[in-house]
Amino acid sequence: MSADDLVLRTAVHDLYSDHHSWLRGWLRKRIGNNCDAADLAQDTFVRVIKARSALQIREPRHYLSTVAKGLLIDLFRRRSLENAYLEALACVPEAEQPSLEEQALLLEALLEIDRLLDGLGATVKQTFILSQCDGLPYAEIARRLGISLRTVNNHMAKAMEHCCLMLAQLP
After folding, report:
1. 134 is in which domain, residue-wise?
2. Overall average pLDDT of the 3-22 stretch
3. Which long-range contacts link 154-157 to residues 24+ away (Cβ below 8 Å)?
4. Tens of pLDDT along 55-100?
5. Number of structural domains found in the chain
6. Can you give the CATH number for the domain in which 125 is found?
7. CATH code, 20
8. Are 123 and 155 in contact (CB under 8 A)?
9. What is the pTM of this model?
């Protein structure tokens, strides 16, 4: 282990020792669930370790709460998407429902699509989904969303470019 790695490891250890309990409590107040708060606190420190940023942190609680807020938003978005999926699945006749394995794969795919589209505006996302998932022609999307055909084209180009950039970043 190099001297730099040892210094970084010590900084992470000190940051964790000094602020983990505070962060877990801060998260618990926001979500009311000790288990989720503990998981998110751990995930926050994993992000700090991956970013190798512990030495540059000047305001630890501000930094940690900012990272944790992002993780909290991701958790709420995932749960919201999962609930919407389960509600849609409940409308499907029992005989036509996919197996538990297929349901898990579908949910995983939905979460991945949501992650890929993260960062796009709501209308751009909706345009993309109406086109790619619902198979609607651009003219119908324009009519439904009350936007011009040119705007649909622009939104689709933006969404496709965004997806290609996100896919290129995958390991």
Report:
1. 119-171
2. 86
3. 155/123, 155/124, 155/127, 155/128, 156/127, 156/128, 156/131
4. 788 899 999 999 999 999 889 988 988 998 888 888 889 889 899 9
5. 2
6. 1.10.10.10
7. 1.10.1740
8. yes
9. 0.70
